[in-house]
Amino acid sequence: MSEIAQRTLMVNGIGMHLAEAGEGPAVVLLHGFPELAYSWRHQLTALAAAGYRAIAPDIRGHGRTDVPAEVEAYGMRTMMADITGLMDALEVAEAVVAGHDQGALLAWALAEAHPERVRAIAALGVPYHPRPPMPLTQALAAYRQGKFNVVTYFQQPHIPERELEADVRDTLLRVFTAQSGDADPDLVPTWLTGTPEGAGFLDALPKPDRLPYWLSEADLSHYTAEYERTGFSGTLNRYRSIDADWSDVPELGTGTITQPAVYITGDMDSAYRLGTLEPMKAQLTDLRAIVILPGCGHWTQQERPHEVNDQLIAFLNGLDRTR
Q1: Residues tagged active-site
Q2: DSSP secondary-structure letter at 75?
Q3: How far is CA 76 from the centre of its chain?
């Protein structure tokens, strides 16, 4: 089993921390919220053992990567430049990019905007979305009047940080548990569609009396220590940049993705349950598989590491290994 190495490189003007393992064709693994490079711990060693070079950065604003203070530093154009810059620093001309949650959105953007750098894509949880007709918060204001919405709530300055950082371990445990496959199936849909406007992020999430089955005390302690050190502003600023992206990168969501692709999700993941896969099917010309894991929640690669590893390796092995 290959060991996981850790280092920090100067990339796109920031210090970017990454974990990596193995040698061979490169696979870049992009985490979501509230996650870290650590979220790919099961995949790093498995991909390395299968003959691949697995690379998982703490994306901008997270973990041991720098956390710029300005909201403007978290736009999608900058986030994409971070990853292509990381590839340049590692002398990787082309890679398969796998992403989960916000990392999946970044992976889709990279595949569309930089097809010469992305030879294939694996998206976990979040499918490809076409460009919306208006900035997201405007659409939410029109269609979600009177209801709590995560993206809208995160637009507020300081208030989300105060709530999430009051007890970091409690915040993470509530979020990880509520969106797991072993939670009450109605909990997350009710939270996301039925919570009244004015509620806090955590108000509808119960305080668990145990860890979810896939998360150890050591895992939770690692996440807690990192977010206690950095706070949540980095990940919140990514959400606060979404409207600016609509104007800054208007080409995203308008083209066709031609690279080989696989989509993996849990049937309990709200990104799958409350959305649709039809736009993804329409705008991908080489969608090789849609994998839906029964009983799996939002934390796909952590909840079902063996199934995800098997699917990723099968997908990778089906690509041209000479590239």
Answers
A1: 101, 298
A2: -
A3: 13
List of residues 6+ apart from 56 with CB closer than 8 A: 18, 19, 20, 28, 29, 30, 31, 37, 39, 40, 43, 44
Distances (CA, A) of 294 to 23, 113, 186: 32, 33, 16
Q: What digits encode the pLDDT tens for the residues 126-169?
A: 999 999 999 999 988 877 677 899 999 999 999 999 999 999 99
> Can you spell out the DSSP letters for 8-39?
EEEETTEEEEEEEE--SSEEEEE--TT--GGG
Task: Extract the tokens encoding 38.
Answer: 């650590």
Are 153 and 144 contacting, i.e. CB atoms less than 8 angstroms apart? no
Please name the amino acid found at residue 90: L
For 42-65, the pLDDT digits (tens) are: 999 999 999 999 999 999 999 999
Rounded CA-CA distance 105/26 in Å is 19
The reported pTM is: 0.97
Write the CB contacts of 110 (distance below 8 Å, at least 6 apart in sequence).
Answer: 80, 83, 84, 97, 117, 118, 121
Query: C-alpha angle with apex 160: 16 to 131, nearest 5 degrees?
Result: 70
